[in-house]
Specification:
By secondary structure, this protein is an alpha/beta fold. The chain is built from 14 helices and 14 strands. It is globular.
Amino acid sequence: MKKNLLFIPGPVTVPEPVLAAMSKPLIDHRGPQFAALAGRIDAGLRPIFGTEKADIVLLGSSGTGGLEAAIASTFSPGDPVLAAPVGVFGRRLIAIAKTYGLEVDVLETELGHALQPDALAQRLAADTKRRYKGVLLTHNETSTGVQNDMRALAPIVRDHGAISIVDSVSGLGANEFLMDEWGYDIVVSASQKVLAAPPGVSMVAVGARAWQTIEASTTPRFYFDLLKAREFARQGQTPWTPPVSVLFALDAALQHYHHEGAKAVWHRHEMYAQAIRAAFTALGLPVFSQPGAHSVTVVAGTVPAGVDAATLLRKLREERGVSLSGGQLELKGKIVRMGTMGDVSQTDVLGALGALEMALLEYEHPVHVGAGVQAALRVFLDLAGGSRPDAARTKAPQAPEQTPAASR
């Protein structure tokens, strides 16, 4: 049977032991076994969020549900907030906020670029009356392959005083995040990205300052109510029937994550992203994200002239068993996106890149045979030491600047 390689930005390929955990018999979600399960998940998530102080609540939803819960629970209709999108999912935060009657100002950033700390500082400094009740930020933007520098942005928001909500659905766990130290108020993630569990659970970490605002919120809500979620979490439960089987898988995925070690996980994502960027450049698919803004969980490459992106992706999926993603909204047909998350090996990455190269050659796209795979392989060989347990204790290397495309 042909093996399918899943390299979309999520859901991702799930390790077999994690999938197997879903076959466990169901348990009483109001009983002690579930409370123990919830406790293990909470303990496993804390070092990934970088928090000892925040409450972490589990919601039966996708990451979008967690984001809706954060916005609906925190603010009241008419509250002014500042959103700083760097792509499609940042705009989704804006759409959620407007749905709940918030007054949203937008700090725009050119696609492919990260939010500049100076730009955010200037915008917030102009808010001399401290009107903004909240700031909506994206950690990692899969639609453009961009990652924001959350360490640099944190003190700017903190100095203003607005409540910060961070969409870290596709970022959390792939590199260091220190919620307590940096001072973020609410951080949202989900099961089906870096943690490599099936979709169905969002995780929302809420700090003490945010709870004060949440308690004062007048926004109507029912299912996505963080106060209800906290009340039941303190009893080792959820307000509504939880996706118990997915939580079994998340528990196993967290054990798998910590067994590998956070720094080894960070290094793996960084290495795969570097390899894919090098391959895309060699294949004549210029990397869409700009230097200093590269995501480690998804790489976007610009589709060359004469290549139909939709046909390319369909042929890869149907003829070669490799699933990549295309662009969204104004980037539709202009880029292809390849994820680094999930249970995929270096060999899988090389195989997917080889399939992409073969598909491009069928378009008579001018590229040296083997250029993409060789470029990725060189990255793997250069960074091979980082995958060893002893080397995983060192800081993950920084991404190099893009190299010129291979001659044709």
